[in-house]
Amino acid sequence: MPADSPNAYIFLGPELGKKQDEVDSIKQKIPDAETTTFYAGETPVSTIADTIQNNSLFSEKLLIIIKNAEVIKKKDEIDLLVSCIDNLDEHTTIIMLSDEIKLAAALDDAVPKNNRKIFYELFEREKNEWLKQFFKREGFNIDKDSISVILEMVENNTEALKRECSRLVHFLPREERGESQVRTEDVEKWLSHNREESAFTLFSRIASGDLSKALESLSVMLAAKESAQSILAGLAWCFRKLGDYLSLLETGDANNNFELKKIGLSSPKARDDYAAAARRYNAESAEACLSLTAEYDNLLRSPVGVMERVLMDRYIYKIITC
Question: pLDDT over 70 for what percent of the chain?
């Protein structure tokens, strides 16, 4: 098969919801495919290549999903994966995923242009419209104040918005007739009730350098069965956002409301948190925190992941003393 294999895809960027929609769309086209998911950095590329090159024992069609594909950087690993893509069997599909916005150039070039997409964070007006349409489908009308509260309390991607808002609608009062109204006080009450601690509250503790409060926040989330991987994913998002904020500081735009809203910092609380974080971390240390987060994500997926609590406590200690 030629190098522009129609069965190879690259989906990048921090907008998790739309990215997952694209993956689900491909899955629907090959419902009888056997799906195997790998995490680059955890599984050797040679193992991924062996799976790609060997036909499935249980299904004629095979779907290979490679997450964290941005960590594939060694030339021999890249060349091996490119070779697999260039010679891809017609019954095998490969999807490479990353929250970053680029992969190694050779991997990018091996995939058809139409099969490469970057899903950026939604602009504020897009998030507002997404929420309006979500609640409209559920039979609710929502005003600007309630939307602002939701966006302050929920991670900035449609996957998290859908998850939290789907929970929220179960608690909102409904009118017997006509369209029900989402009230700000109900949003605050039930989102706080459903998720008293989140990656955002944990990042706030980290930003202030409060180790004991950060460990307490972590403990509450783990006790509530929040997965360690999702906590790390949320913190990775926060540290990427911190990088954006530090860039605004360098250009003198950190007090520009328009520029702050463009990077998703519209609430006073969020701005205070990132201002506090900027006093503790510079661009280099923020990048180091991202690398440390990726390192512990891989550790949690390895055999030592059974020591989840120990690993996460150690991670929080390192991230605050970084």
Answer: 94
Inform me whether the pLDDT recorded for 322 exceeds 80.
Answer: no
Confidence of residue 1 (pLDDT cuts 50, 70, 90): very low
Dist. CA 273–CA 138, nearest whole Å: 33
The answer to whether residue 263 scores a pLDDT higher than 90 is no
At 31 the three-state DSSP class reads coil
Token pair, residue 197, equals 């601690």
Mapped onto helix, strand or coil, the DSSP state of residue 215 is helix
Cα 212 to Cα 317: distance, rounded to the nearest angstrom: 10
Q: What is the CATH number of the domain that holds 171?
A: 1.10.8
Last residue of a domain, one of 166, 194, 222: 194
Nearest to 34 by CA among 21, 17, 18, 52: 52
Query: Around Cβ 177, how many Cβ atoms within 10 Å?
Result: 6
Amino acid 194: pLDDT: 55
Are 5 and 85 spatial neighbours (Cβ–Cβ below 8 Å)?
yes
Side-chain half-sphere of 240: how many Cα atoms within 13 Å? 20
60 touches 30 (CB < 8 A): no
Per the structure, the count of domains in the chain is: 3
101 and 163 share one domain: no
